[in-house]
Every structure is written in C-alpha cells, then in structure tokens.
Design a protein that fits this description.
With 477 residues, the chain is α+β, with helices and mostly antiparallel strands. The protein folds into 4 domains: 52 residues, no CATH class; 149 residues, no CATH class; 105 residues, Beta Barrel (OB fold (Dihydrolipoamide Acetyltransferase, E2P)), CATH 2.40.50.140; 72 residues, no CATH class. It is built from 17 helices and 14 strands. The strands form 4 sheets. A 5-stranded mixed beta barrel has the order 4-5-6-8-7. Strands 13-12-11-14 form a 4-stranded mixed sheet. A 3-stranded mixed sheet has the order 1-3-2. A hairpin with a 2-residue loop joins β9 and β10. α1 packs across α2, α4 crosses α5 and α16 packs antiparallel against α17. The termini are far apart.
Amino acid sequence: MAGFTPGEADTLRKAMGKKIAKLMAELKMKFIDGSVKNGVERRVAEEIFKQFEEFAAYGFNKSLAACYAMIAYQTAYLKAHYPDAFMAALLNSDCQNIDRVTIEVEECRRMGMEVLPPDVNESFKLFSVVKGTKNIRFGLLAIKGLGEDIAQEIYRERKEHGVYKELTDFAKRASSIKSFNRRSLESLIKSGALDRFGDRNKLFFNIETLLEYQKRLAREEVSGQKNLFSVPGNESTHPLLKLRDAPPASTRDILSWEKELLGLYVSAHPFEEIHEKLKGYLIPISQLKDHKKEKKVRIGGMLTTAKKILTKNNETMAFCKLEDMHDGIEVVVFPRVYNEKPLLWEEDTAVTVFGRVQVRNDELKFIAEGGFEITPDNIDDILRGTEHEKKNGEDETAKKQPEQAVTLYLRAQLPQTVLYKLRTVFDKYPGQYFVYFLVDQSQGQRRILSSYRIAFDELIAKELEAILGTDTVRMET
C-alpha cells in the first residue's frame, strides 16, 4: 500500500509491537506519502495510520482476546471457589520469581489465608495446602541452602515411615541422608522447618550437640554397635534431650532469618508494627507511579538490601531496596544525602525517606533527598515533624531554640482552587514549622496563625511560590 520494502514493513511492525512512539512518528509521513503516491487518498491513508497508532497503544487479535477472556473466567472461578488450592498453584508457578511470590503471599493474607513457614511434618517439595485448613505451607525446596536431594529425602522418609515424632526422631532419621550436613540443619532451623521441636534460637544454640548426635549415630550404623547406655525404645538417657537453655529468638532475628532463607518475611513483616500508625503519613510504594510528576513525596519501609559504591570522585553513595507491606522500589542515595546520615542506609533498618520519583527505562526509581530511621519510640515525633537523632547521648531537640515559622503573604481573597493547592502541599509535607498567613486588608496587614505545621526547605518554598507567586514565602523567627 505504501510501497514499503519488507525491511521497512518489519520496522513498522516492530514499532507497533514494542510501542516505540518515536519510531512510529518517523514512519508516519513516509507511510502516508507512499500511499498517496500509490493512488490512495490522503484522507484514507491518514485514517489507516491512525488505526495503526491506536493498535500500537494497546491491541491484539479477537482470537487472542477470546483466549484471554476464557482464561480470565476460568481462573476467576477457581479463585472464588477453590481459593487455597488456586493460590498454592499460583505460588508454585511463580516460585522462581520472589517479587511475584511476595505479592501473592500478601494476596493470600488479604483473602484470609495464612502462609506458613516450611515444616518437616507438613511441607511437600512445593507450596501446598495444609490438610484440614485453608492455610498454605512453604515447600522444602524453597529453603535456601537445603538442596533438592535433601528436601526430597526428608519428604520420602516421612512418606514411607510416618511423621517425625520428636527432635531425636528427626535427627536419627536425617542422619541416614548422605549429604545432610551443618548447613542443611542450620537452614531447617532458621527457616522455621523445625519449630515444632523447639524455639529456633535454642535449636540453633545447640546445633553442635545435634550434629554430634547424628555423627555418633552414623558411626554406630557403620560399626553395627549400639550406644552403651541406650535402652531399646527409650532415648531419655541420651544427652541430646538436655539441650542448653538459650533466650528465645527475637522477632527481628526470626524475620531476618526468613528473609535470608525464604526470600521474604513469612511470620510477619517487620514494618507491620508501625505501618498502621504511619498509613496517612506515607505514600504506599505501589502508588508511586501516580506521583511521578510531584517534586517531593515521602515513603517508608524496610531497607532489605543496601549496596554501597564509590563514585569517580571517591565519594560513597548507595543503592537500596526499600519494601513496605505490599511493594518495593530501588532507592538511589547520592553522596550528599548519604554523608548526612551514613549509618541510616543499612539493611534491616525501618526508615522513612523523602525525595522524588524518577522513571528510567520504564522502571520506577526513588531519588532520596533525606530520611529518618523509624523506631517505636520516635513514631510520634515523626508524625509531628520533629524527627531527631541523639548524638553523644544528648537530645538535640532539648536545646532551647527560638520558634520558627513559615509566613505566606496572601491577597485578601484567594480562589478556592488556590486554597486547595495550599492544603495539598501542607498535607504532603507535615513538619515542625508553624504556618502564618499575612493577609492584606483595608486597615493594613493582618498576621493569622493557621492550624498547620509543615516541613520547610528550598524545594517546598519553590512549590509554595509556584502557587502564590514569587517573594510570597518567608521563614521567620
């Protein structure tokens, strides 16, 4: 129609299929002019290319749409009528993609199903529904450091000879697994697979005792000898049962181990305790795509990774993964921000970070402009905008400082749209500074204290001046 060569036609196909707007624009006039040259009316050629552009935005064949529709109906039916089996199957289909697994585990919780850590007596190799419940168990293959052979043997042994009755029973039967070693046992303990036999920290504290017991059993198996003090059917005299006491594993340790060995937090989320209190203060990471045009936003969560590098100027910066309850994003911390609080940007730290959203190669990134660690003790301070740190044991906010306020110079009457924009900025940047309005009136200027307290810096000042005009925003004591 347009006289395109096969190569040019394929370029147009690629531009449509990959949604490359720039390439579509380059080909538009070539297509229209070529069509006119071949006797096609310009109006018709333009209309056809317009359809190409619409199709390039999003479109596919009716046959493909019908297939998608059928799958949508089938999966919706299964999710509605067999939610536990459906979600277990979905988790198994995405088990190699930890980001998808994290989203799907959260969906299970939203639907009222618990997703439980692995268990030597209930786990299969993959995700499965716990018999008699609607809960879903992690599979043994999900445990990093365990190995497929060992996971298979633990399951096979249980299937052939019944559940593991107690710790001694498990240790005895696991000792016959050829490649079972310290790392295997450590992975089982830390992931929660042996929780039914005792507290994780206590088991981990006694790991040498457990390993020594297994070695002794292995030696006896080879030599055909029995323990001199053992009584058939009775293991009560064995020193394994006298495990040394150890403090219970802390929530922080449990969650850290689960993140390390399962790839995500399972028993709970370390940000869960403070999530509810800060819900109205932080923008959920999943909603950041709706805030791409805003100059500054505030998010929060756990720093799950923190990679530090040296720039060409020999300065340190960091690339961190920040995760809240539902999603995650890469946070880029440039040297200036990093040097302000180098100890903040560490793994397993709960933080609130303010900055701006950036899109690179269709991927969202967050450029940090500052942040604070979140602890149960300083949540109220954060909400009031009085975040602070203690240095050398001294509370810096205890120092007597003059009251500072932001003064906005207003005309006597402002349109409702302007007032709405101001309130939006105030809500977005809560902080420690009082806000005064200086209003022009017939008898002179009147200074009015508002009910707002906001944060303040150069960027916020520019945002306010964009609404009110230049020289309308002042910081005053």
